[in-house]
Amino acid sequence: MMRYLLDTNFFIQAHRSYYPLDVVESFWIRTKELARKGHIISIDKVKKEIYDKSSHEDELKIWCIDNLEDQFFHPTEEALSQYIQIVQWVNTMRHQYLDSAIEDFLQADLADPWLVAYAIKENLVIVTYEKSAPGAKKRVKIPEVCNHFGVRFVDTIGMMRELNSKF
User: Is the dihedral of CA 45, 48, 52, 58 positive or negative?
Assistant: First the structure.
């Protein structure tokens, strides 16, 4: 069974743009079901981004608390050696990226490098709305890191299709 690792933007963009909690309930019911069955997981850094960037009464935060089991968000320290590989590689890319882009990507609490590290360790497919931009200088994007390390990534609809999941 292929398992999928969700980026923060899976939740935030779905809630704010495509599948608002109060309008497209079926998307969120399906997400809860896929999580319960173990098809989708995420990491502690994503949880922190969702919880810390929201107000106390944010609907998305409340939905996550009410609908995702504690073990849905996996601890990232398990992927420390893979994270170190990513840090080393990104630091060799100073000819392509601005120093500020590398510094931003490697911020301690940013989920992006940890997502790729965890996906490498557990052989997972990352679900993100980020698009590949190989010539970008101002931001290190998840797809470029995935491409370098051989990690598959898809968007939300791609994941749903691969899981033969409808909502």
Answer: positive
